[in-house]
Amino acid sequence: VLYFLRQVRSGLWTGASFHRNAGHVLQAGLAHKAVPAEQRASVPFQEYSPSLPHEKFTVGFAGRPGGPDWYISTVDNTRNHGPGSQSPDAALFGEADPCFGKVVAGFDVLAAMRAMAVQPGGFGMLMEPVRILSARVL
Length: 138
Prior knowledge:
By secondary structure, this protein is an alpha+beta fold. The chain has four helices and six strands. The protein has helices spanning 2-9, 78-81, 88-93, 107-114, and strands at 17-21, 25-29, 58-61, 70-73, 99-102, 125-131. Strands 5-3-4-2-1-6 form a six-stranded antiparallel sheet, with helices on one face. The longest helix has 8 residues, at 2-9. It is globular.
């Protein structure tokens, strides 16, 4: 959580965008924002707790190692992004995408993004990215 809060406070996510609708996640990233390499750092290690599984509407870091991109699960992704889900070696170490939050409002916005057109090719890249106008810690 601290990693993400620091990113928000530094302004990293203001001007970034949601760029992917993969059916099981809506992913936000820095693909459409010029950001120095040092600000694109991944999480230091894949921290995961079974007390916060990747259920519908939870928020997790994308990739291995995770971050800075993150996603909102649009379905229960406990099996897709939980321990041992990404590679055979991950099962050995109990590795999983870090899950660090939960959406509590704005479900209409998520539904609208899920209905947006994606590019051909199967990766779920949105035809038109959804810009994050402002990100702040309340």
